Amino acid sequence: MEKIRERAATLLAEGVVTLVLGYEEGTKRPRPLFCRNSESARKLIFDSRCIHNLAVYLTKKELVGKDRFAVIAPIATLRSIMQLYVENQLSEDKLLVLTVDPSGELRELVTFEDIAGYVEQFELKRGEREQEILSKIDEMSREERWKFWMEEMSHCFKCYACRSACPLCYCSKCVVEVNRPQWINPWPAPLANMEWHINRAMHMVGRCTACGACGDACPVGIPIDLITRKMMEDMAPEFGYIPGQPAKKGNALSTWKLDDREQFIR
Amino acid sequence: MSEKNTYLPYLMTIEKITKEAPGVKTFRLKFQDEAEAATFEFQAGQFGEYSAFGEGESTFCIASSPTRNGYIECTFRDTGRVTSGLSSLEEGSTMGFRGPYGNVFPMDEWKGKNLLFIAGGIALPPMRCLIWNALDLRENFRDITIVYGARTVKDLVYKSELKEWEERPDVRMVTTVDPGGETPDWKGEVGFVPTVVEKVAPSAENTIAIVCGPPVMIKFTFPVLEKLGFRDDQIYTTLENRMKCGVGKCGRCNVGKLYVCKDGPVFSKEELNLIPAEEY
Amino acid sequence: METKYISQSGIEQWFNAIITSGKRVYAPVNSRGQIDFKLVKNLNEVSSEYIQTTQSIKASVYPKAEVLFSYEKVNGKVNLTDFDPESVPETVMWKVHPCDAAGFKPLSAIFNWDGADKLHNAHLAKTSLVSFSCASADESCFCTSVNGSPGNTAGSDIQLTMLPDGGAIAEILTSRGGELAALLPSVFEADKGVKKEKYLVDLPARFSLEEVNTKLSKAFNSTVWKEQSERCIGCGACAFVCPTCACFDIQEDVHGSKGRRIRCWDACGFAMFTLHTSGHNPREHQSQRWRQRILHKFSYMPERLGVVGCTGCGRCSRACPVDMNILEHITSIAQQ
Description:
Largest sheet of chain A: 5 strands, mixed
Helix content of chain C: 25-40%
Radius of gyration of chain C: 21 Å
Helix content of chain A: 25-40%
Number of strands of chain C: 12
Structural class of chain C: alpha+beta
Strand order of the largest sheet of chain C: 3-2-6-7-8-9-1-10
Structural class of chain A: alpha/beta
Oligomer: heterotrimer
Number of helices of chain C: 11
Order of helices and strands of chain C: EHEEEEEHHHEEEHEHHHEEHHH
Distance between the termini of chain A: 56 Å
Strand content of chain C: 15-25%
Number of strands of chain A: 5
Shape of chain A: globular
Number of domains of chain C: 1
Number of helices of chain A: 10
Distance between the termini of chain C: 42 Å
Largest sheet of chain C: 8 strands, mixed
Strand order of the largest sheet of chain A: 2-1-3-4-5
Low-confidence stretches of chain C: none
Mean pLDDT of chain A: 93
Strand content of chain A: 5-15%
Radius of gyration of chain A: 19 Å
């Protein structure tokens, strides 16, 4: 922790970066911190409780500015950064990544190749919570699944915290706000909520890196992250790669190849 | 409970449709219920919520003068879901109207003064209401000057009325289009509204200036008026913040501590100074 | 106003009498790991161990999505069907906290400002509040800083203060509360003279409203908004869990020739909230939207409506994905 503070303070003091995005102690758990001078770097902390995906801020130009900035990134954040890079949303010369490896060493990742090399060592696995709920859902019949999700969706009040917390929901105008035509009914109601979440899932498949930020952000406790995670798990073997894991450029659903298997066309 | 539902619109019949400019139409609306028509009253400056059933509501001013009884008019550009829905309606169809909402131009206080109307583009409608109101009560005012500009000749609205005002001996009418927007036979001015106002240079003495237009036009016109000697209490404008309810509840048009729908849409520059300019 | 004693079994009998009367009863229920107001039939469904429900009781008088009126297009004509106040069922909100009950006043001040809101008033007329005073609080609670208290009776029809014997001090506060008690008058025994203050949590005030108000009156151009809002991600969680946030949108639900106009919750924190059709957005940045949220609640509402737009329930702080702690932010403004 001390190393992160020192390094952040030096980077800011020497003008290498104008901003270090990290974590500080919050009300109940750590929260995001924007360090803009070496003094505020003293507030930085980093431990296993630091789970906010700070990649969500990287595409907000009003916050990160024009100059080079650093971000403290646990593995889930690194995967989002990789995906943002694949989608041409980040530039290498603006970003400096700080992370702490499993042995507790502070690592500096300068290029996307560095990040890719680092991320490659970690396999994306279901956590206990995901395993528990997803295996329950897997055992359900179609009707039971629909019932389960409709009940969950009935609690949604469309605060869009899921969208706001997602590093990959960077569109300046979201599909739910398009009204010509009105694709999705914008008010909260069970079916209208389902429309929103299905649409969001469709927009995330092949892009979601299963960081869990959407589910974590949901104020009414809908395990919304599991929808996109499951879709990712279903998609990955078909397309031969996992979003956020180092791979070729392009997205599963927005690239097309002559030799695509197209098994869904019968 | 006989409380009235604020959100329930009056049903209106579209009596007449006038095409003003590309995408811009004027609707003349009549109340379907005679009792509603008989009790309806409004004053220059007020606005309403217009419904296209199946699409929603949109906010525009009432563009006709309160001195013309029996109907109201609105002018709008087809830019979104509701305006496009309205635009597709034909004469004789039904639409909705809620209003009148908002405050009014203090015309009584302006008696005996010169009036200078400055409008840009699609912002002529709120001004048109006021202009006709003033012209119908012509003896109450001294010199009347109208400066109206649009991007191109095609974009000028109320063309026949512009002509009528031009031909009136008791109105000084100056029409302008942005540089490049003129046609070969264009006889008006060429230049942006603030520049033309400076050129026309009406005296600030005993004059009220009313400015309606896009925020950027207003922003550049105020300093010109100031240069010409207008005090802040001699300058009026209307704000057009986004609204949904029109009655001070939905929260959208809150600018500083004021609500454009309740405290406005008419503001003197003196009043505008009390609220943060970045919020309108 | 009348103070009575009600025993533990008396509470249950009275609760059952309310259910039997046919009124809907909503109470805090623990389900899916969340505690929120749900339709209940039995007292044992009601949650006991919690500080605060995730959501306020706002939805009882301001539904998340409500039909303002409906219409049908027939041969070029339109038939309107108005909202029917009689369609609103009698509802009792059971075990609300004083900070929730206090939220109805600012909410109604917004809806009835210079013109009554028929729908909101129809719900208000049919909703009774049975509040329970607070014996505990957490670090997000600050009712005492915003004119409230753990035993504040404002807005409640009846307030119960739980006693160690499982019974409660029952303050019957309004005529509507009297009608509720009259459903089973026998369980309301003579007041035992116990002071309720002893059973309330001690929650010292954290800031002075007057001081905040004075600071805010000069704070529009302060850098504090940018500093505080950096981590805000611009969702509507704070607004939607808030007992007093009332911003709404009006939308159209269309099914062929029939349609309904719907009022639904909206939030000043959303980027699109103030966007003009022209593309101009007066509140383009999140810092401006955060400023609006705070100024509206603590400056504009007090000045224009004579009420503070905050009851200190702390829900926004608890619901915020990035810990935008309103108490911390307001306190820091007060100390500037």
